[in-house]
Amino acid sequence: MTLPDLLDEARALVDAELARRLAGDADDPGRLWEAMRYAVLGGGKRLRPALVLAAARAAGGTWEGALPAAAAVELLHAYTLVHDDLPAMDDDDERRGRPTVHVAFGEGTAILVGDALLTEAFAALAALGPRCAEAVAVLADRAGARWLLAGQARDLAGGATSLAELERMHAGKTGALFSAAAELGAIAAGAGADARARLRRYGMALGIAFQHADDLADGDHPRFAAEARRRLGELAADARAEIAPLGDPARPLAALIDWVAASAA
Amino acid sequence: MTLPDLLDEARALVDAELARRLAGDADDPGRLWEAMRYAVLGGGKRLRPALVLAAARAAGGTWEGALPAAAAVELLHAYTLVHDDLPAMDDDDERRGRPTVHVAFGEGTAILVGDALLTEAFAALAALGPRCAEAVAVLADRAGARWLLAGQARDLAGGATSLAELERMHAGKTGALFSAAAELGAIAAGAGADARARLRRYGMALGIAFQHADDLADGDHPRFAAEARRRLGELAADARAEIAPLGDPARPLAALIDWVAASAA
């Protein structure tokens, strides 16, 4: 399967699972569930959940077994976008060509929507049964105040003055959830410690590379552009090296890092 | 042990566990961990975690085994207070005699603090190991968009026009987390389905009774005062009936509902 085909197939599966989880209550006080669906089901590449599924296969598991973890990661990503867009954070009025949640539903509801999606993310992991504890520990670590939220706090506190600082922010804001995605795929597949650690490090490198590529495409942080382009190449090489021992089942992961690296060329 | 002694002992244990969990990173960008500690460690009766511990004993378990669940419930409660106090929600400047988190640390940081405490709440449940999946499902259900956040959304959408509506709001905003607390105690204790359901229903009745008592003490919702006083008596009787079959180990839970009922006399 080519990478675009794989991403399309993963997106269809994940979108159906998300729609099922967000069907909600018929009685919807304050349009909370409607706003949750608006936040999550309005499109998106579903790159992070596709990474969960691809990592699960690379670790010898199936997409079906990893689907709850894939939904969890996308719900978590969606919550960060809703809260990031708030006036007290990035104060964005539009996302994916539509009004942001706080513009469409009000700021109080947007805060609740983010809280609800974060809660639903953990709820999804309960479906992993005996693997739930490991999965919760990984998602909470990477999405909590040591990684993702530390990155947000760093961003709020002021911009980066060196590439190292910028990369630390990228590691928190983007790398952490990519690393959680890949590691959750490994956990869902029942992978051993070595494969799990390889996929965690692959995810972190992929996430930081993805953010550098995004910055380069958007012209963000122009003073670090030359260094970021060099780092992107290094990170792609690191990511490829991590998954090389996993062999053929990891080929989609190799295609993913190649695609990210090429997107900034 | 008298109820005040039991609450004091539970509070000391829970406070130590919360301080341990919130020690955080030496490097604290944007003072995120400092603000998390400010939000959680600044006092509070710790009624909800005490309920987790008391329910665990009532179901044949130990305080030690239920401590992670107790910490989870208090972290979850603390996050709801931080987000509730935000300008777009209740817009409160003071809590427990000190500036609220958004006043002391800024609104953006307060949003992240709530997000981080919610994430840490689920992280705490990972310590329950094989019982994590059940615990996560219960906490996410009761703290999510079907219960707690539905109550918040209902409140945002406008006040109650009948006692039934008011009680529905109380069930979401207060009863849900009390019911989760009691049920999590049961889960940590490895209780059977009957004891677990009894403790869940006891917690819900206790929580709604607690909110009625609080309203009566504060003079809130005065038009429903007479009805609320009657309902408080009914809910206390319901709660006592639920735990009666659990016998002696449930005596602290009986004392707790008596104390709540008496506080509004």
Topology:
2 copies of one chain form a homodimer.
Chain A: H1 3-21, H2 32-40, H3 47-58, H4 63-84, E1 94-95, E2 98-99, H5 101-105, H6 107-125, H7 132-143, H8 148-156, H9 163-188, H10 193-218, H11 225-243, H12 251-263
Antiparallel strand pairs in A: 1-2
Helix pairs in contact in A: 1-3, 1-4, 2-6, 3-4, 3-9, 4-6, 4-9, 7-9, 8-9, 9-10, 10-11, 10-12, 11-12
Going by helix content, strand content and strand pairing, the class of chain A is mainly alpha
Mean of all residue-level pLDDT scores of chain A: 95
**Main sheet: strands, sense, barrel of chain A:** 2 strands, antiparallel
- The Rg value of chain A, from CA coordinates, equals 18 Å
Task: Indicate the low-confidence ranges of chain A by residue numbers.
Answer: none
What characteristic shape of chain A results from the CA principal axes?
globular
Written account of the structure:
- 2 copies of one chain form a homodimer.
- In chain A, strand 1 and strand 2 form a beta hairpin.
- In chain A, helix 3 (47-58) runs antiparallel to helix 4 (63-84), helix 4 (63-84) runs antiparallel to helix 6 and helix 10 packs antiparallel against helix 11.
- Chain A contains 12 helices and 2 strands.
- The longest helix of chain A is centred in the middle third of the chain and has 26 residues, at 163-188.
- Chain A has 265 residues and is an all-alpha fold.
- Chain A is globular.
- Chain A has a two-stranded antiparallel sheet with strand order 1-2.
